[in-house]
Amino acid sequence: MMGIKEREFRPLSSNLSLEELVPKDNFYRCLEELLDLSFVRELVADRYAAIGRTSIDPVVFFRLQLVMFFEDIRSERQLIEIAADRLGIRWYLGYDLHESLPNHSSLTRIRERYGLEVFRAFFERIVEICFEAGLVRGEELFFDSTKVKANADINSLASRFLVDTYLSGLFEGSSIPDGSEAEPPAGIELETLPTSEDEALIATNTGKSDWISWAGRQDRSFSSGPRKRTSDLRVSTTDPDATPMLMGEGEAKLGYQTHYVVDGGNARIVLAALVTPYEVSENRPMLDLLWRSCFRWRIWPHHVTAVSEETSCVRSAHHIQRLTYGLHQRLFRPGPDGPQ
Fold it and tell me: What confidence tens digit (pLDDT) does each residue in 13-48 have?
C-alpha cells in the first residue's frame, strides 16, 4: 500500500535544545573540541572602542570564516543562508534556533576593520597550533598556485591611465591607509633579533621590498619583455586588483593567483599563502615565500619542490635559473661530505 506523507508541523517542545539535535560525531563538534578560538579576542582588541554598541563576537566572525572555507562558500550572503539552515553550524556559532544570525553586510564591515595584518596573524596562530600538535615536519616544502576567479566581468576593463588619473584627483591630499604597512595586532608579541638596533642593516632593509611587504600587489615597473602586459594598459573598474586570465578553451576572465607553501609531512599543512593578480607567475614570489617560511617557522628544509605550469615556456627559463641559483646560495651550503 502506497503511503502519503502529510505535511504538518507542530511547535517544538520547550525542553528540546539545539544541543540534543546535533549528533555527537558532527564535524563542527569535533572542530570545537580541537580548536579554541578565544585567542582572537585579544588579537582584535585594539580594533574596538571602549564604549558603544556591542559588536558581533570576534570568535563568531572567525568561526564563520572557517565555515566558508570548509563548506567552499564564496559569498557571505550565501554563508548566512546556509548557516541558518544547518543545525550543526548554528551550534558551532553558538546561536540557538530562535536567535537571528549576523547580517552578511556586518561581516564585510568587520573584515575591512580588521585588515590584512589581523587575518595574517590569525593564519599564523593556526599554523603555530599545528606545530605544537606535531603536524609539521619542515624537512620538505612544496610550492604551488591556484587560479581564483574574481567577482568582476572582463568587460569592466578600462584605460589604466584614465582610471589612475581620476582616482589621484579624487583622493588628492587625503591619506589612504595601506594594509601592508599596518602595525602588528596588539595580541602578537614580536621577538627582538640581535641585529634589531643595527642602523646600517635597518637602512639597507628599508630600501628593499618583497612580495610579502607588497601584500601581493604587482610592481608595474617590472617587465619580462618588450611587449606591454594587458594589465599595464587596462584595469577593471569593478575590481582593480584582478587581472585577465585564460579559463578553459581560451576564455578570458578576471582573476587572481593564490600561491601556497605546503609542508611535506603527512598532514600537508599550509605554512604560507599569498594572493596576487593572476599575471604574477608562480616563480616570481617563490623565493620571498621560501625565506618567509624558513625564518618565521625556524625550519631548514633539505628539499624544495615547485609545481609550475610555465616550466615548458622559453620565457620562464630565466626565472627557473634565478630560482635555482637563489636556492643553491641560501639552502645548499658546503659541508664536510659535499653539498648539504
Answer: 777 888 989 999 999 999 999 999 999 999 999 999
| Total residue length of the chain | 340
123 near 43, Cβ under 8 Å?
no
pLDDT tens per residue, range 83-140: 999 999 999 999 998 899 999 999 999 999 999 999 999 999 999 999 999 999 999 9
Place of cell 585577465: 244
Higher pLDDT pick, 19 / 164:
19
Handedness of CA 22, 24, 30, 35 (dihedral sign): positive
Q: CA 52 to CA 31: how far, in whole Å?
A: 32
Q: Which residues contact 18 (CB under 8 A, 6 or more apart)?
A: 87, 90, 91, 96, 97
Asked if 199 contacts 132 with a C-beta cutoff of 8 angstroms, the reply is no
| 3-state helix vs strand vs coil in the chain, percent to 5 | 40, 15, 45
Distance CA 258, CA 147 (A): 7
Of 185, 62, 66, 60, residue with least CA distance to 117: 185
b/e burial code for range 242-251 (CB count within 10 A of at least 16 → b)? bbbbeeeeee
pTM for the full model?
0.77
Distance CA 291, CA 296 (A): 8
Residue 340 carries which side chain, given as an amino acid letter?
Q
